[in-house]
Design brief:
mainly beta; eight-stranded antiparallel beta sheet; two-stranded antiparallel sheet; 1 helix
Length: 143
């Protein structure tokens, strides 16, 4: 269903990861001559996180979002300060149950859309309690 396994807090001032960066793009088609050096380090916080105080990492459990490139075991970077809009991938709490779905806002109401045809869309009944916990900004895909 696309459940969440405990959000992990990213502490302010801590670096998620500092890694070496290649000075040239790496070919995904035909191989190109390799470079034997790297061009220094980059801080992944700068590239992946806009607001450290409202950002969390959640691990995905389930395959309901595979069509969006989100697989079982992946980790999502989720920003709680962003305003969700139609089409956002969100961590939502519907009647006390956590789920990850694409938010669809229609004239007929709100729909939490799965990205896997094996799962039905969830039309949110008007009397249900829906809280959008946060908006997914990046997926750290497990390979």
């Amino acid at each position: 269903m696309g459940a969440i396994i405990g959000p992990r807090v990213i502490d302010a001032g801590t670096s998620l990861l500092s890694v070496l960066i290649s000075p040239v793009p790496v070919a995904a088609g035909y191989p190109s001559p390799a470079q034997d050096y790297f061009d220094g380090r980059i801080d992944l916080n700068e590239h992946l996180i806009k607001d450290i105080t409202s950002t969390y990492v959640v691990r995905v459990s389930g395959d309901s979002m595979e069509g969006a490139g989100i697989s079982d075991g992946d980790e999502l970077i989720v920003n709680r300060a962003l305003t969700p809009v139609d089409g956002s991938v969100v961590v939502a709490v519907l009647d006390g149950e956590l789920t990850i779905k694409r938010l669809r806002i229609t004239r007929d109401g709100v729909v939490l859309q799965a990205e896997n045809p094996a799962y039905p869309d969830i039309r949110v009944p008007s009397l249900s309690e829906l809280v959008v916990w946060g908006v997914a900004t990046r997926c750290l895909h497990v390979v």
